User: What shape does this take?
Amino acid sequence: MCLRLNDQVAIVTGGGEGLGSAVAERFALEGAKVVIADVNQKAARETVERIKAQGHDAVAIKTDISVEADVIALANQVREKYSRVDILHNNAGVLFHGKDAKAHELSADIWDTTMRVNARGMWLCTKYVLPLMMDHGGAIINLGSPTALNGTGAGLTAYSASKGAILGMTAVLANDYASYNIRVNCIIPGTMDTPMNKGFLTNLANQPKLLARIPLGRFGAGKDVAGLAVFLASSDSAYCTGGFYMADGGLMAF
Assistant: This one.
């Protein structure tokens, strides 16, 4: 069997659960050595155990991506263990259902925390991992959101703004690092059935109106993003950079 990511080193932030865990497991299945960088060490270890049980290489490194010292330590540990990074999947993020709000109702604390993790955290990870890619090339995959592109994020001011920052960074990073053969792309998932959305989606009153806007008629799952992440991480997408790739069940086409 041809492994599309054989012997490549991949960092997946927020890889302990949800979309990150699904991507990490799929990367490992495709032959990558996977580093799970997650503030939730218990969840990270559980993902690593599942990967190792299938005979693949994985390690968990406790990382708060919003803390520069943590990200520096992550990069140093990966350099020490593997000497290089081929793939960075910037998946980690936060969404405060019930606390994120319209602009005039939003607290500065929720705004600051959301931007610190989603925007600053992605930038910090990219900043300190890039030097581990620049001599041989690589792939960076960022996780965006339709809330940065249309009105699906109504009432989610901080989250939508943070995801808009990610779209902007994806474009400028793709331009700045193409000469190093580093490709930077963004996956835009739709409404996903993940732990981050669990409290929101388990409210049955929310489901009909959400499903009515999804042409494929269901919420997304980790596997719906994992295959796309493998494509963007592999040489199959060698001519793709600066792109935004939908995995939203048709939400943006509605």
Q: What stands out?
A: The CA atoms of residues 8 and 85 lie 7 Å apart. The beta strands are 9-13, 33-38, 58-62, 87-90, 138-143, 182-189, 244-247. The chain has eight helices and seven strands. The domain at 9-190+223-246 is CATH 3.40.50.720 (Rossmann fold).
